[in-house]
């Protein structure tokens, strides 16, 4: 059986060859992520095209996700690295570039004007702690850490809600590329509230971007406004790296579970990301704690788990993906299914009511120990498949659509196995068309003869929001 939890892999120099991409796809990668904090625009454009070409040749559906840089703060120094001693006073801002001065600045130096004396700043994912101070001869940082700080490392200001720009110049280039390459998902960094999402929507409309927007939650402000963010975003990424610097690290597991639950209730996909297999950047096997972390994400019922540096720049990208696939697949079988799950919806929301009916039919078979081999969904927009996905049934959702773009955007949804099928715009969903799709699944060895499927469809293939029928068929 196909794994139900999806795998997102970040492409980078360790994994971007044609041979590696093919192996990654065959291992079960569902979405390839392109991190705009690294590499040139041309590099990303070429790799997106390369992955699509290989996936088409293999006949495998994969999604494309570009991760915009957003208003992330980075260290900006006149040298490649700085040796720092605990208690040392460093010049901060423009003065760091004056002759004879030892210090550093940041990528958005205007933010310095909003800092208050005593403010804590954390560099390199929390490895370095500094405290801001104002003196007669200018602003400074007092180091609370001894070590070697490298240029361009991350900088976080815990609790800050300063007027950062939502998009930077490079992000506009990313939106243009997203439109040109028909990218499926656009991840937005450091989303603080619903307004940030609306600003990006407005800018993206200028480029005619057709992808879905994934809000990365990595600040306290994002947590404070999580409900409004979920309501306007197409999905959420639990970005545990920066989040674990912005808030106390012991709080991250709670907020991970909270965000996943809220996304399931809202019917929005959620990606659990960062440091899932961090040790495999340098080692061929994971720690037991990392395996437990991945398994817990499965038990949390996340839609996707994600690899970052492990696959982009690590020494063992294939082993990391294989470890993730095995861990996800094994623990999905052991996950206790929530058989009392229900969702509130309007009586006018016909697709949601139909999904309720379909899941009720599924439960009847589960309670009587009769196996359902899967759901079969005919969908124009992907909404019915996404709504059905939130029940987290332990069986695949085979989703067929006449729209290839919709097919690719369903790669993010838990349990959904997407296909596209060319049909006439006015084609009916008849008994014959259901039979043809079932025979197709049999030919792909996704079903066995005699298996039972719960089918959801409308009267026509190409009618949006037309799902109106639930039936039980036998393969």
UniProtKB/TrEMBL annotation:
Protein name, UniProt field: Pyruvate kinase
Taxonomic superkingdom: Bacteria
Annotated NCBIfam families: PRK05826.1 (NF004491), pyruv_kin (TIGR01064)
Enzyme class of the recorded protein, top EC level: transferase
Keyword Signal applies: no
Recorded family membership: Belongs to the pyruvate kinase family.
UniProt domain Pyruvate kinase C-terminal: residue ranges: 368-472
Record's keyword terms, sorted: ATP-binding, Glycolysis, Kinase, Magnesium, Metal-binding, Nucleotide-binding, Pyruvate, Transferase
Stored PANTHER family: PYRUVATE KINASE
EC number from the UniProt entry: 2.7.1.40
This protein's record includes keyword NAD: no
């Amino acid at each position: 059986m196909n794994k139900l939890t999806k795998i997102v892999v970040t492409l980078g120099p360790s994994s971007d060859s044609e041979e590696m991409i093919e192996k990654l796809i065959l291992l079960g990668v569902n979405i390839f992520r392109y991190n705009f904090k690294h590499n040139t625009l041309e590099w990303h454009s070429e790799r997106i095209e390369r992955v699509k070409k290989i996936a088409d040749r293999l006949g495998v559906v994969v999604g494309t996700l570009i991760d915009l840089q957003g208003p992330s703060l980075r260290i900006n120094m006149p040298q490649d690295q700085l040796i720092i001693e605990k208690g040392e006073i460093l010049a901060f801002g423009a003065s760091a570039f004056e002759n004879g001065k030892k210090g550093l600045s940041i990528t958005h130096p205007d933010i310095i004007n909003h800092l208050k004396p005593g403010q804590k700043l954390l560099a390199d994912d929390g490895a370095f702690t500094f405290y801001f101070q104002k003196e007669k001869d200018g602003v400074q940082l007092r180091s609370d850490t001894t070590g070697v700080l490298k240029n361009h490392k991350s900088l976080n200001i815990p609790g800050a809600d300063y007027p950062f720009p939502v998009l930077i110049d490079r992000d506009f280039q990313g939106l243009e590329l997203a439109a040109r390459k028909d990218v499926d998902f656009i991840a937005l960094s450091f989303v603080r509230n619903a307004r940030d999402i609306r600003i990006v929507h407005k800018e993206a409309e200028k480029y005619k971007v057709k992808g879905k927007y994934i809000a990365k939650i990595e600040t306290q402000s994002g947590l404070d406004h999580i409900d409004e963010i979920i309501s306007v975003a197409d999905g959420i990424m639990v970005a545990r790296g920066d989040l674990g610097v912005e808030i106390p690290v012991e709080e991250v597991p709670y907020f991970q579970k909270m965000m996943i639950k809220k996304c399931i209730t809202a019917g929005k996909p959620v990606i659990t990301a960062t440091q899932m297999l961090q040790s495999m950047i340098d080692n061929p096997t994971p720690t037991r704690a990392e395996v437990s972390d991945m398994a817990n994400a499965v038990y949390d019922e996340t839609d996707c788990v994600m690899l970052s540096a492990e696959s982009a720049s690590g020494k063992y990208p294939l082993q990391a993906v294989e470890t993730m696939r095995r861990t996800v697949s094994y623990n999905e079988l052991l996950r206790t299914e929530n058989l009392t799950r229900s969702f509130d919806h309007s009586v006018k929301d016909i697709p949601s009511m139909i999904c309720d009916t379909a899941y009720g039919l599924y439960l009847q078979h589960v309670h009587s120990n009769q196996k359902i081999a899967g759901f079969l969904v005919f969908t124009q927009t992907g909404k019915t498949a996404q709504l059905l996905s939130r029940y987290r049934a332990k069986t695949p959702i085979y989703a067929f659509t006449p729209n290839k773009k919709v097919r690719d955007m369903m790669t993010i949804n838990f349990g959904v196995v997407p296909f596209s099928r060319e049909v006439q715009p006015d084609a009916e969903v008849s008994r014959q068309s259901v039979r043809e799709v079932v025979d197709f699944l049999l030919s792909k060895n996704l079903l066995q003869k005699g298996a039972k499927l719960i089918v959801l469809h409308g009267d026509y293939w190409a009618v949006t929001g037309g799902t109106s029928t639930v039936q039980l068929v036998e393969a």
